[in-house]
Input
Amino acid sequence: MNPDDKYISLAHGNGGRFMRELIADVFARHLANPDLDTSADAVPLALDSSEVLFTTDGFTVQPLEFPGGDIGSLAVHGTCNDLAVAGAIPKYLSLNAFIEEGLEIAVLDRIVASLARAATECGVHVAAGDTKVLRRGEGGGLYLATTGIGIHAGGSDLGMDHIRSGDAVLTSGTLGDHGVAVMLAREQFGLSGDLESDAASVLPLTRAAMAIPGLRFMRDPTRGGVAAVAHELRQATGLGVRLNQSAIPVRDPVVSVCEQLGYDPYYLASEGRVIAVVDADDALALLAAWRALPDGADAAIIGQIDPEPRHGVVLETELGGERILEELEDDPLPRIC
Amino acid sequence: MADRDDAATLARHIVLEGRVQGVGFRPFVYRLARELNLGGWVRNDVGRVSLVVQGSADAVRQFCEDLIDRAPPLAEPRIVSDEAATGEISSDFSILDSDSAADAHIFVPNDHDTCSDCLAELHDPDDRRHRYPFINCTNCGPRYTLITAMPYDRANTTMHGFALCPACHDEYTSPADRRFHAEPVACPHCGPSLHFRSETHDIRSNDDALAAAVDALCAGQIVAVRGIGGYHLLCDATSEHAVQRLRTAKGRPTKPLAVMFPPAGDDGLDTVRASVDLTSDEAASLAGTRRPIVLARRRADDALAPSIAPGLDELGVFLPYSPLHHLLMAAVQRPLVATSGNVSGEPVLIDIDDADTRLARVADAFVHHDRPIARPADDPVMRTLDGHPRPIRLGRGTAPLERTLPVSLDTPVLAVGGQMKGAIALAFGDRVVVSPHIGEMDSPRSLEVFETLVSDLQSLYGVRAERVVCDAHPGYATHRWGRRCGLPLTTVAHHHAHASALWGEHPGDDPMLVFTWDGVGLGTDGTLWGGETFVGRAGAWRRIASFRPFSLPGGERAGREPWRSAAGLCWEVDRQCPVGPSDAALVRQAWQRGVNSPTTSAVGRLFDAAAAIVLGIEAVSHEAEGPMRLEAAAGVAGTEPVSLPVEPATDGVAIVDWAPLLFRILDHRINPAQRAATFHDALARNILDQARRARAEFGATRVGLGGGVFQNRRLTDQAAHRLRDDGFTVLLATSVPCNDGGLCFGQVVEAAAGSAR
Output
C-alpha cells in the first residue's frame, strides 16, 4: 500500500493493487489465523458438533470509535453474543466491510486491530471476508457485517416456549451504559468521564448460566434495551413481565445523563449484558454464578414473569406505584400536558 | 287535550325520559295519582317511565302539571309523548313491574348526598336507622357506584346479596313509602356494616367501629375509609404533624389536599367559611346534592395545618356526602383531610383487599364496609372561573354526565380521551355520556378501570360502540388501546378536541374563535401544540395563530422540571437562564443539537417557565404546580402592560412572540408578585388582541377559551372581562372540564361533526 495514501479512495475497491494491498496490510495482517486464506473463494470449517448455530448482524454505529469500544469490536461482540445467548460457543466469523471513500486508513487500521483483539478474546476465527468501497456520502465511514457460526455448548435447553409464569428475570449487570456512551460520543458532547460502553463478550456469563438447570432463556438487551427484551418476552409467551425499578442496576453517571437529557435507561442499549429468564427456584444460583464473574458483579434479579398479560410490561416504581413500560415508538414525543 | 268523547273524564298515556330512574319518580307518580283520585298505572321501561292515568279532566290536567313541577329533587323528567290512552284502565292506580325488553333510553343515575329526611332519621334516637351509616331512600344514596346492570332494580345492584328484613321489605314494597323501590335500602338488621381494623383492633359493630375511627383520627392517625365511590385517606386537617405524615407516606410532598368540614349553621357551611371565603354560587354547589370539592379562596386566619396547600391561596373544601361521612364529621367536629385513597395518579381504590395491600404503608387504620363498590367514582372538583363554579374533574355525583349532542351520530362511538386525566365518553344518536375521572393513564390499574368503564358503560346503556375515537398522539396508552381494540379507529388532534368540546357545549352556525392553551398535545404538523387559536366549528377548525415555537430540552421531563421550559425560552433568545442546575452544559448542548428537545408552542410551558424564573421553582411534584403557585403569587400586585407582537400569517398561521414578556419576567428589578401579575395580564391582553384581529378578518364574535391553561382563574377572568368589554361573547366550559378530562367529549363532538359532513 502506498504510504502516502492516508484515505480510502474508490481505487481501494476496484479489484486492483490498492485493494489487494489494503486487504493484506490492514485486514489480513490483524486477522491472520489458520482458517483465514484471503485468496480462497471458500474455506473448509471444522465443526465437531452436530448442533451448529448460525447468525448474522450488521453494524452501523456512529461514531465509529466511542469510549469503551468501536465498530470493530462491536461487530465481533454483537454476533458472538447473539450466539452465546442462544447457548452456543462461537467458532467462526465472516466479515464484510463497506468502507466509505475518504475514511482515514489509520482509523480503519485501528478498528480492524480492535476487531482482531475482540475475536481472539472470544475465541473465534474470522474465516472469510470481503470489502467494498462506497462513494463519498453513501456510507457512514464504515459499515460492518459479520456472520457467526457456533456449536451448542451443552447444558440447558433454551427457548421462550420454556418460560413459565413466576419465572425470575435477571440482568448480568448495569443497563444502558452502551447507549449513553455512544449517544454522548455521537453528539460530541465532550463529556465522557466515567461513561464507557459496556460492549464485551458475554460468553463467560452465558457459559456460567448454561450450567444452571432452571435456565429458560437468554437475550442480550441491545437496541431498545431491557424494555424491548421484556416486550419480546411478552409477545412470545403471552404472559406479562413485571420489572422492579429499584432492583434494576443503572450506573450513577448513566442515571445522571438520562436525568439531564430526559431519557429512560430501560430503553437504552447494552452490548455486554445478558437478560436471563430462569426458574424462580434457581434465580439465586444464577445470581451467585454471575456475581462470581468479573463482568457479573452488578448482576441482579430485576423482575418476574407475570401470569397477568393484560398490561404487558409493568414497572413497579419505588413508591409502590406501577407504570406501564410501553413498547418503544420510533420517535417518542412527550405526553406531558 | 280533550279528545275523548266524554268531556268529564280523560285518559292519557304519557312516556317520560331523562333522569327518571333511581330517583323516586315512580312512587312520586303513584302518590300524585292517588292524591288526585286517578286510575291507571306506572311502569319503568328500560330507561323510561311509561304511565297511564284516567280520571276527571281537571284532575288529569293537574296531574300533567304536577308531574314536572313537583317531581322529586333528583328527577329531571322530560315528556317524550303524551297521547290519549285507550283500552281498559283500572280505577285503582298501581305500579307495574319493569319492562326490561324495551328499547334503550337509559339514564344511569348519579350518587347523591344523604337527603334531609334520611339525615333527620340518622340523628333520631327513636328511628330504627338511628346512626346507621348506610341509610338511604329514593331521594338519596349511591346509584352509579352500585348499579351492575340496567334496569335499575335491587337485583342489578351490589346490594343483591343483602336479603331485606321484613321491616325493610315493607318499605320497599309500599308505593306510598319514601323507600318504595329504594334499591339500596338497608337497615342495621339486614344491610351492610362497618369493619374497623388496625394493628391492635378488629371491630365489626357499626357504632364501635365508628368510635374507633373517630379516636384514631383525633389522635392524629391516618385512616383509610371506604365510602361511596372508593376509599379516602382521612386525617386531622388541623394537625400539621398528621398532614406531614400523610404527605410523606403517600409520597405527595406539595399537592394540595382536599378538606372535608363538619356541617354547621343554616346552610351547613359555617365551619367551611372559617377557612375559605365563598361566593353564593360556591356555597350552593358545596351544599347541593352532588357535594363536589370546591376550590375556594383560603382565609389567612384559618386554623388548618400550613402544609395542606403550600404556596396556594385556595383550598379544596367539601361537605360530607354519605351517612358514614356525616356520622364521622359529627363526631370528630373538626375539618379532616380527605384525599383519594390511591397510589399517586392511579384511580381511587374500591376493593377491600386492594386497599389493605396498597394503602398499608400509608394508613394506620382502615374502616371497611361490605357493600361492594361496582366501579370507582373519585370526588368531583369545581373551581370558580369567570364567576361560576365549573368542573375541573367529574366524579361521584357529577358523572356519568349526560349531554345532548348538537350533531347526531349514525353509529355509536366510544371516545377514549387522552393520557392524563383519563375519562371516556360513549355516544349514540344525539346523546353522549361522559365517565367519571379515571386517573393518569400510564398505570396498569388506570387501564384496568378504563377497560371496566368501556365495558360497563356499553352494557349499562345497552349500546355497542362501532367506532373508537382517540387522540392523535401514538404514545398515549388510550391511543394504543384504540389501535388494538379491533374497532374502526378515528384519531382527533388534541387541540381540535379541546376546541370541539367547547363548541359541543356552545354550538352555533357563526364562526367560533377558540383559544386552546394547554401543556402540550400533538398537532397535525407533528409538532407539540399548546398555544393555538382556531376559527370555525367542530369538524372544520382552521388554525389561525400559534405561539412562537421553542424547544423543550429533555422532552417529557419538562413536565416535572419547569426550569427546562425556562431554559428553552431563554436559550431561544440567547439569554442566560437564571434557574436550573448550576451545570446545564450538557442539557444545553443537547438542546442545541435537537437531542430529545421537541419543538412546542405550548402556553402551559410558558407558565412553567414563568413560575421557574419568577419564583425559582425548578422541580415540581405534581402537574401544574408551577402555574398554580404563579397564579397565587400574583395576588393583588399591579401590572405593567406588555404587548406580545403578532407576526402576520405567512402560511395562514400568525405567530405570537413571547419574547417581550420573557424579558419582562427576567427583570429582577421588578418584584416577583408584580412579574407574576404582569405575566397573566399580558396573556389576557394578547387574547383580546388576537380576538380583535379574528373579528376583523373572519367576523368571529363568539370566543371560546379551552384547554388546561384556562383552569387559571386569574387569566380566564381577565381575558373574559376584556373580551366582554369589547363586545365579544365569551364561551367557557360549563359541564365538561376544560382540561384533558374533557377531551373525550370533544373527540365525540369532533367525530360527530366530521362524519356529518
Q: What stands out?
A: DSSP finds 21 helices and 32 strands in chain B. Chain B touches chain A through 53 residues (CB under 8 Å). The CA atoms of residues 296 and 482 of chain B lie 38 Å apart.
